[in-house]
Design brief:
By secondary structure, the protein is an alpha/beta fold. It contains 11 helices and 16 strands. Helix 8 links the parallel strand 9 and strand 10. The two termini are 34 Å apart.
């Protein structure tokens, strides 16, 4: 664990923006896995969780003998939640010798990078790129649910559990993640007998003051506000709602995961917030308990679903490589072709459920919901 703690410290330094590698010494002939995500900036909680979760899986696999007896070499790059910088990070990793990409973390960056991986025919597995277009190409798979699936599942969960009949929506119309979830949520809400009394949008250029959107929800008397957005804006909305004395139920998707780790955020404001997620840190199965213990010891915080998705991504790559009989001397293109087929043949039981994949890159697993109670995620039935 000492090496993992040293690694965690590196994550928080500016040196990480130039890339990060496992500190183990590797012999020639390794599988080189690259990772791209926001390790600094507004979405750093996502990228850091992905990198840390993947690192735990890499360390476990290497300690157990690697993939087909071959060790994994792992290196990450920061994209600062910027599409162009994500492409630059890809080029840096490609120069390093990357054979498989774990990333990008966010949807826009993942889509931008997929143009490069498609041209190079490199296998790409994004842990958390949820926009529909992330898997446009046959070389790209994902671990997380797609935005359409999240929107539909959220509406079904609300309807089946009787959470509310009158709902307000606040979403980012300029973001593919948020707009994609909102569209399918609205469609399924009609099937669940849910009235959408208010639908209010904001954009990346106007994402600080939410008083107008909140006031409209208050005036309409909504029982629950659906927030298919990222945790930074959600945190601001909760703060401003408290100032207005507005206390509805709150429900979001995986983008809200990370809110509890924001600097200077009053966690009491998040009490009762519900979110759809494939991972709950309080689950009692042995795999989850061991992962949470290792992650907490290494990095000093409880892992979120981004960390869990990344952990599962590494084990999916391991399973696919073993299924395909992959070796590190294969060309990037040959390795990609082998893994595209192997991914449709494997099944893994991971932190986010039992997962299989279709040829179009989509995972098949069951969604879960958690609620924030006393500053922690608690599984909901």
């Amino acid at each position: 664990m000492k090496r993992m703690k040293q690694f965690a410290a590196l994550v928080m330094t500016a040196a990480l923006t130039a890339g990060m590698a496992s500190s183990a010494v590797f012999a020639d002939g390794t599988f080189k896995l690259g990772a791209i995500g926001p390790l600094t900036g507004a979405a750093a909680n996502y990228g850091t969780a992905v990198v840390n979760g993947a690192q735990i899986a890499v360390d476990e696999i290497n300690a157990a003998g690697g993939i087909n007896g071959v060790q994994i070499e792992y290196k990450g790059e920061d994209d600062e939640l910027d599409n162009e910088k994500s492409v630059n990070a890809y080029n840096t990793l490609k120069d390093w010798g990357m054979q498989i990409l774990v990333g990008s973390v966010t949807s826009g960056c993942s889509i931008a990078v997929s143009e490069k991986t498609k041209a190079d025919n490199m296998f790409q597995l994004t842990p958390s790129g949820s926009a529909k277009d992330c898997t446009n190409y046959d070389n790209v798979f994902r671990v997380c649910f797609s935005d359409p699936n999240q929107g539909m599942a959220s509406a079904k969960y609300m309807g089946e559990h009787g959470l509310a009949t009158k709902v307000g929506i606040i979403y980012d119309s300029s973001d593919v993640y948020s707009a994609g979830i909102e569209a399918t949520f609205e469609e399924e809400a009609a099937n669940q007998g849910i009235e959408i009394a208010v639908k209010e949008a904001f954009t990346a250029d106007n994402n600080v003051d939410f008083s107008s959107q909140l006031q409209k929800c208050m005036d309409a008397g909504v029982e629950l506000v659906f927030l298919p957005i990222y945790y930074t804006q959600a945190g601001a909305i909760l703060q401003q709602a408290a100032m207005l004395g507005f206390q509805p139920e709150w429900f979001g998707c995986d983008g809200l995961d990370g809110m509890l780790d924001m600097d200077n955020f009053n966690k009491e404001l998040a009490e009762g917030v519900m979110l759809l997620t494939p991972f709950a840190a309080d689950a009692e199965d042995e795999l989850t308990q061991n992962f949470v213990a290792a992650y907490t010891e290494a990095y000093g915080v409880t892992p979120n679903q981004f960390a869990a998705d990344a952990y599962d991504a590494i084990y999916a790559i391991k399973a696919a490589c073993e299924q395909a009989g992959a070796t590190p001397d294969m060309s990037v293109s040959d390795l990609c072709e082998a893994l595209k087929t192997a991914m449709t043949e494997i099944e893994i039981t991971g932190l986010t459920g039992t997962i299989t994949w279709t040829a179009d890159g989509e995972p098949d697993k069951s969604p879960k919901a958690v609620q924030i109670q006393d500053g922690a995620y608690v599984s909901m039935q």
